[in-house]
Amino acid sequence: MFDRQSPFLSQGPTDLVAIAEEKIRHEIKAGGFSPGERLSEQALCKSYKLGRGIVRAALSRLSHKGFVSSQPRSGWRVASITAIGLREITLGKAQLEPLLADVDLLPDDFGRLEALCDMQAALSSGAGPYGEQLELTRNYERQIRDLLASRLKAPLIAGWLEILWDRSDYYLNFLEASAGTQLKPTDWTVFISAKRGGRNKDAARLVSGACDAFAAFTQACLLKSELASPGGGKKKLKTTSNDEIPLARSDRERPSLKKDL
Question: For the structural domain made of 83-244, what CATH number should be given?
Answer without folding.
Answer: 1.20.120
